[in-house]
Amino acid sequence: MGMAVVDPLIELRDVNKYYGELHVLQDINLTVGKGEVVVVIGPSGSGKSTLCRTINRLETIKSGSITLDGQPLPEEGKALAKLRAEVGMVFQSFNLFAHKTVLQNISLAQVKVRGRKKDQADQRSRQLLDRVGLADQADKYPAQLSGGQQQRVAIARALAMEPKALLFDEPTSALDPEMINEVLEVMQQLAREGMTMIVVTHEMGFARSAANRVVFMADGRIVEDRAPDDFFTHPDSERAKDFLSKIL
Ligand code: ADP
Ligand code: MG
């Protein structure tokens, strides 16, 4: 059976990036099709966060190309702000505005970047809060919420921009164990609804159940890019075998 034909949304071709002498991304080639969920795993320091940050153009690259829907990533200005909205990012550390309410956190960029009227933005924010199970928390401040609730607000905030894709960089790593599932369930739901997602995570249950592909990185390279079942049952490389033996 061949791989399903994908309609590419995100394409990285021969991407190289350095931090000083450190060759942090080495000849990265990665295509993410529309509606695909790609889980990225690998040891600490292998370049997973940097990969996410280059796709969102929080980092520039030395060589190669990155395209979104066939278009090169914009360099600056309004187009760059639009890109950041179209490729939403959810971080380990929530990054909510502490002095704004939950509702304001979700509405703000809709008004500033998407140009929506405030009441339209608020209406959409309330719909999204309902979708992530937080309809009753709109007027609270982030510090009044649990970590799991804050992360669901961060996801709602990213969704409010109507992104073409979402990048998740270890979204559950900062959470107490009992809060991990409520966040993964929201992500599972998004995956089922066809959201294109790149997810850096150590949650192998999520990878097995939600991912179309697992990308294993080590030392700035993509070492394996496979269907989850293949990867977990027959990892090819010694690096992946070693990594899996430590985390499973
Ligand atoms: P991962 O997310 O897989 O743990 P990172 O992408 O965060 O890996 O980091 C890859 C490598 O790049 C690491 O060696 C890290 O120390 C280094 N690195 C990350 N960010 C910077 C930076 N801003 N400046 C210099 N080195 C960095
Ligand atoms: Mg990281």
- Helix percentage: 25-40%
- SSE arrangement, N to C: EEEHEEHEHHHEHEHEEHH
Q: Helices and strands: which structural class?
A: alpha/beta
Calculate the mean pLDDT score and round it.
94
Strand order of the largest sheet: 6-7-8-3-9-10
Pfam families: ABC_tran
Enzyme class: translocase
Family: Belongs to the ABC transporter superfamily.
Protein name: ABC-type polar-amino-acid transporter
What key attributes describe this structure?
4-stranded antiparallel sheet; globular; 248 residues; 6-stranded mixed sheet; binds adenosine-5'-diphosphate; alpha/beta; 38% helix; binds magnesium ion
Write up what this structure looks like.
This protein has helices spanning 48-55, 77-86, 102-112, 118-131, 147-159, 177-192, 204-210, 228-233, 238-247; strands at 8-19, 22-33, 37-41, 63-68, 71-72, 87-90, 165-169, 196-200, 213-218, 221-226. The chain is of the alpha/beta class and 248 residues long. A 6-stranded mixed beta sheet has the order 6-7-8-3-9-10, with helices on both faces. It has a 4-stranded antiparallel beta sheet with strand order 2-1-4-5, with helices on one face. The longest helix is centred in the C-terminal third of the chain and has 16 residues, at 177-192. The protein starts with 7 loop residues before the first strand and ends with a helix. The mean pLDDT is 94. Magnesium ion is lined by residues 48-49, 169.
Give the helix/strand layout.
Elements: E1 8-19, E2 22-33, E3 37-41, H1 48-55, E4 63-68, E5 71-72, H2 77-86, E6 87-90, H3 102-112, H4 118-131, H5 147-159, E7 165-169, H6 177-192, E8 196-200, H7 204-210, E9 213-218, E10 221-226, H8 228-233, H9 238-247
Parallel strand pairs: 3-8, 3-9, 6-7, 7-8
Antiparallel strand pairs: 1-2, 1-4, 4-5, 9-10
Residues 19, 22, 24, 42, 44-50 line the site of adenosine-5'-diphosphate.
Catalytic activity: a polar amino acid(out) + ATP + H2O = a polar amino acid(in) + ADP + phosphate + H(+)
Protein name: ABC-type polar-amino-acid transporter
GO cellular component, one term: plasma membrane
